[in-house]
Amino acid sequence: MNALMQSGGDTTQNAGQAAAERRRARARHYAEMLVLVRGLARRYKNLVTRISKAEMNATFIEYELFQVLKMMEECVDEGAYEVAQDFAPGLAREAQAKPQKPLRYLAESGTSSLEIKARPDGMADIRIDGGKQFTLPPTLADLVTALSIDNGLSDDAFVGWKTVKEIAEYLTRQSGRPVTKRAITQNVYRLRKQLFDRGGVNPYLVQTNRRRGVRFALRRKTSSVIKSDR
User: Fold this and answer.
1) pLDDT tens-digit series, residues 111-164
2) Selection from 181, 43, 198, 73 nearest residue 126 by Cα
3) Which of 1, 54, 182, 213 has its CA 20 to 30 A from that of 19?
4) Mean per-residue pLDDT, 83-94
5) Residue 208 phi/psi, 5° resolution?
6) What are the domain boundaries of the chain?
């Protein structure tokens, strides 16, 4: 009888030890998985950071290539003028009488009107100074809307400057999604390119200033109406 009771006690003790060992094994597995997940999260964050930097670099390269292209076109025009001097002096004098001014200089006069009309597909129809109508994707349409808001903080004839942080906070409130300062910087260059490519609009109407921020060169007059359904 005593032997039977002793055997039962040993079985219970062994079962308890086995259960404790299983708990310890699970705890070790959880700890190992936690270390792996933390490592994956850290590497994922680093990867996202590198991708964001690569995207920004690609955007800068694209914009700089755009500038180089414009300079090359101007050089070609100058070369054509020199050839015209030899073969068609009259045309050359006429071209010289109407020199082409740099885009940045032309943008200094700004624009008097900006119309932004949302479409059912999420795009937006844009018209500047009653010119050609063209479309922009929602992100860029929201950005140009933010840049053209007259916040009263201006010492010239145009709407006020906004810092990148202020624009990011405004777009975050409007969209309900977080918008980073990095995204704003990237989209400013995208907006300049799309204004030129889609609408033939001077890209330097999107003005940037290292100290003051960014704005759209919209003149502050009663005629400076922003029609937006966004």
Assistant:
1) 899 999 989 888 999 999 988 899 999 999 999 999 999 887 777 889 999 999
2) 198
3) 1
4) 50
5) -125, 145
6) 1-100, 101-228
pLDDT of residue 91: 46
In angstroms, the CA 33 to CA 123 distance is 45
- 182-193 burial, b at 16+ Cβ within 10 Å, e below that, comes to ebbbbbbbbbbe
Specify the pairing of strand 134-136 against strand 124-128. Answer: antiparallel
Task: Compute the residue count for the chain.
Answer: 230
The answer to whether domain 101-228 has CATH 1.10.10.10 is yes
Helix ranges (DSSP H) in 133-180: 138-147, 164-175
What pTM was computed for the model?
0.56
Return the SS3 of 112: coil
CA dihedral 111, 116, 121, 122 (to 10 degrees): 90
Distances (CA, A) of 138 to 8, 49, 53, 187: 75, 24, 23, 11
Give the type of residue at 126: I
